[in-house]
Every structure is written in structure tokens, then in C-alpha cells.
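hey can u check if this looks right to u? its 380 residues, i copy pasted from the old doc so theres a chance i mangled smth
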Amino acid sequence: MAMSIFTERGGKAPRLATLETMADHSLIFLPDISGFTEFVHTTAVEHSQHIIAELLELLIDHQDLGLTLEEIEGDAIFYYKNKSIPTPDELFAQVERMFVVFHQHLLRYEQQRICNCGACCHASKLTLKFIVHAGPLEFISIKNEQRAYGATVIAAHRLMKNEVPNDEYLLISEGLLDNWRNRDIPFGSLEAIDGQSTYDLGVVNYQYYILSQLREGLSIPPPPTYEVSDQPLTSIERVINRPLPELYDLISDLNQRLKWSAGLSGLEYDPKRINRRGYEHQCLVNDTRLTLETVIPESETPTQRTYGERTTDAPFLAEMTSLFVLQPQDDMTHLCLKIYAKPKSWIGHLMRPILRRKLNKDLEISIQKLKVLAESLSSQ
């Protein structure tokens, strides 16, 4: 019978097993997003779910230790590697890779986000910790599926609640250290710190590394700027009885677009991703399929917010851009929708009057439907 990593309270945790039996040991690897509970309880739940899902998918895409994904556990991923233990260098490289891409993603999201809800504003405060354990792994069959089971799995999950005084760290259990037969393992310039926690089953020893240093110097290229220099082809203005932040969210929410956009017969987008700067979606307008990119001009003022979409697929045009310029007006919002069109050739110049008439008709219908929708939502 495998020995437990736990001892009676107050005792010293023993070696997990003798070295002769460690050839059968398996790895448990648990990346865990820190700050998740507070994030969900204090922010917009729908957007927080989308942000966490993106981060979990990112961690899965950057796993290259040959681990088996057992389960997604809310804010954590349960991986194992059956009867195989990576070297310290392999494990540390995996931890660093996941930690760095995680924080690069959050930096990029902070640059690109257009939403100011609690979830989107506080996403940059999320971080990542890792619990890594090793021991004999058992399996149980449930509905013809093999699931990891036993004392090693229980021990790894107990270790997720520990005495580490930080939110971003790598915790290595004594069980894994025993497999490596070495307790003086460098992780770059990070220092190994001895720790111990007491659980209902007893006391466990471990080592941990604070990962904060890995974030120092991380940066990403700034998003491309977008400026409008020419005069709009056409524009329309309305005062809408809805506060500016709420109207902005309604306009930029692709889930609501078909309810008010005239001439739009179809829309394709990923409902799991939050609209942001550089995000692309497909729409069908008058039997023409267009790819639209979300753009935000750099010329905003402290009181003005602008949401834009541009396409290079419009017939006869090199580029067409729609800009929704919103400014507060008492408790309401002044909206100005401007359409910019750059002709592709002389034919495009000839088509401008026809395009303007068509756009004016669609814009009148769209803005009226948007006004009715916005004001009906505000009264609910």
C-alpha cells in the first residue's frame, strides 16, 4: 500500500514512498487562476465567464508536456501524466511558458478592450499559480470512462489550499521532490522556499517559488492607431434616452445587432469572445458578405466615446468605416453615426451619390430601431 504524504498533526511528513517504487509514480499538474472567486462575485458575470474561458483555453493550447487533461475545475485545470515524471527543467519550462503567455494575454486584452464593465476593467488583476504533485495513481471506471482516482489525487487537491503568502507561485509537493531525489533545484533566479500546511489528514511539507519576477519586463506591441482624416460620406444624429455607458454597450454588443441594424440579414461571430479592438466578425448585407473589424479612433475626449467598424469588402470601395460617436447630454446620450467611404477607383467615385442615398435610408431605419430598443430596455 502506498504511503501517504500526510502524517498526524504536528508530525513530520514522511517520504512519499521508497525510491524503488517510484517508477510507477504519476504527475499531477494543476494550473489555477488566482483571483477567480472575487472576480466572479464582484464583476459582470457573463463577461467574467468569457474571460476565464479564454484564459483556460490559452493554458490548454500551451501545454506541451504530454499531459492528459482530466477535467476543467472552474478556475483550474486538472492534468496528469500516468507513470511518468518530467525532469525539473521540463516542468519549470512548462510553468514559465504558461505563466508568461497568460500575462501577455491579459496585457493584450487591457490594450484592446472596449468594455468598461467590472469584469473587463479588473481582468488584468488575475494571475496564476501551479500545484504539482507526484505519487501512485489509480483509476476508476465511470460510464465506461477511466477517471483518475485515489490518495494522490486527493492530496494534490488538498494542496490547493495552503499557507503560501502569495497569489502567484509554483508549489512542488514533497512527493515530487522525492521523485527528483534532489531538494536543491534552481528555477532561474527564483528562490525555493520551504513550506508546510496542516490538513484534516495531517501535515504536508512542500517547496514553493514566487513567480512574480517572471512578469517583470513583459510587454506587447501597442495596437495600431486608427485615425479618420476625410469627411464622412453621410451622417445622422439622435438624442437617445439612455445613459452613455449603457448605450455604448448596446451598440458594441453583437448579440443585439440583428435587432436594430437595417439591411443586415445575417451575422457570424464567436459568442464566447468579448468584442474588442481588432475583433473581426462576418455580416451579410444585401447578399454581400463583409468582414468587419472593430476599430476605436484615437481622437476621443474624456466625455466622448466612439465605437467603430471598418471593412475592405464593400463593393467599389477600398474601405468603409462606421463610427458611432457618443456624448452625454444630461441623463441621455447624443449619438452621431458617421459613415466614411474611400472609393477603390473612378467607378467608386461615381457610385458615391447612389451609396449615400441607400445609406441614408438604412441609417434612418437603424437609428430609429436602436432608439426604440435602447429606451425600451432602460424602462424595464
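The two ends are 63 Å apart (CA to CA).
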